[in-house]
Amino acid sequence: MGLKDRLKRGLSRSRAALNEIFYMGGEVDDAFWDDLEDTLVMGDMGAEVAISVTDDLREQAARENLTRAGQLREALARRIASEFATAERDPFSDLPSVVLFVGINGAGKTTTVGKLANVARRAGTRTLIGGADTFRAAAIEQLDVWGQRSGVEVVTRTRGADPASVCYDVIERAEKDDAQLVLIDTAGRLHTSPELMRELEKVVKVTRKRSGMPVSVVLVIDATTGQNGLNQAKEFNDALDLDGVIVTKLDGTAKGGIAVQISHELALPILRVGVGEGVDDLQSFDALEFSRALVGENEGK
Ligand SMILES: Nc1nc2c(ncn2[C@@H]2O[C@H](COP(=O)(O)OP(=O)(O)OP(=O)(O)O)[C@@H](O)[C@H]2O)c(=O)[nH]1
Predict the structure, then answer these.
(1) Reported ipTM
(2) Which residue among 4, 66, 154, 235 has the highest number of C-beta atoms inside a 10 angstrom radius?
(3) Ligand 1 site, residue 252, Cβ cutoff 6 A
(4) Which positions fall inside the AAA+ ATPase domain (predicted)?
């Protein structure tokens, strides 16, 4: 299956409601505009974005005399795409680069690190994995499995070790091995715990201070957490000044619009999206491709 098809398949649940209001041949009337706005809100795009997208599209329809719903699909995708913040640099391809992955428990950090390491190694990039999740023994084992699978070395310490000193070790090793890409997994934590957030601030500070390579802090968010995901993003961004976001599990939700809202409200780029559990299901992010997959295309296209 091609990448585009995987993205489309992954977003099929999010697309279902919009598909319904865009059924072929539908008239563009007041009910259509109400339905469109409601559907965008229900898909977790947020009221502000939903209203401004609908208003703009409505003006465009009047200006260009578009009367059938199907005629508006591509325009809607383009309008939604314009809501995403754009990335100044991609920390996974603009090398050298150190990336710290943060997020709440179970968001998909370890899996994401593993998938990215696998892809980087296959592309011939000298890659190193850092295991700063010393809280859970299983997390260290899980990273080791990904390391073995992809042939990437994992630098970590035993359970209970200070995560900031693990980062120190990782950077030291990266310099010695002349690594180009360093991916560091951190322990999952609730954004509502000030103590854990402070610990994470220390991890980021130590890594930034010690590393001669640019350091990015990337938040991994599980899309199925919906509006809670937006709150998490705000808390993490306030504490750590994030560089970007990876949204996972978009295949498990009808609320894929949350990616639009997070990127727009926090002015943070989406760096990758997860649309399934396979290695190829962690995809590069293209705002227009993503928006098209969210909105759907007319039949026969
Ligand atoms: N369906 C689906 N599952 C995913 C995706 N990304 C990750 N997962 C699954 O989510 C689960 C949790 O992923 P982990 O990588 O262990 O999460 P974590 O953030 O490292 O968790 P902690 O170590 O507890 O902080 C795993 O079963 C993954 O396979 C995705 O895009 N789609």
Answers:
(1) 0.96
(2) 154
(3) yes
(4) 95-252
Q: How far does residue 249's CA lie from ligand 1's centre (Å)?
A: 8
Instruction: Give the count of alpha carbons within 13 A of 156, CB side only.
Output: 28
pTM of the full structure: 0.94
Tell me the per-residue pLDDT of 138-147, one tens digit each, with 9 for 90 and over. Answer: 888 889 999 9
- Ligand 1 neighbour 283 (Cβ under 6 A): no
Amino acid type, 88: E
Does 99 have pLDDT greater than 80?
A: yes
- Determine whether the shortest distance from the Cβ of 296 to ligand 1 is under 6 A: no
HEC secondary structure over the chain: CCHHHHHHHHCHHHHHHHHHHCCCCCECCHHHHHHHHHHHHHCCCCHHHHHHHHHHHHHHHHHCCCCEHHHHHHHHHHHHHCCCCCCCCCCCCCCCEEEEEECCCCCCHHHHHHHHHHHHHHCCCCEEEEEECCCCHHHHHHHHHHHHHHCCEEEECCCCCCHHHHHHHHHHHHHHHCCCEEEEEECCCCCCCHHHHHHHHHHHHHHHHHCCCCEEEEEEEEHHHCHHHHHHHHHHHHHHCCCEEEEECHHHCCCCCHHHHHHHHHCCCEEEEECCCCHHHEEECCHHHHHHHHHCCCCCC
- Establish whether residue 225 lines the binding site of ligand 1, counting it when its CB lies within 6 angstroms of any ligand atom: no
- What six digits make up the tokens of 234? 């705000």
**Is residue 301 pLDDT above 50, yes or no?**
no
**For residue 190, pLDDT beyond 80:** no
Closest ligand 1 atom to the C-alpha of 282?
A: 31
Ligand 1 center–CA 116 separation, angstroms: 13
98 with 216: CB under 8 angstroms? yes
Annotated binding site: 103-110, 185-189, 248-251
Annotation: binding site for GTP: 103-110, 185-189, 248-251
Contact 269, 263 (CB under 8 A): yes
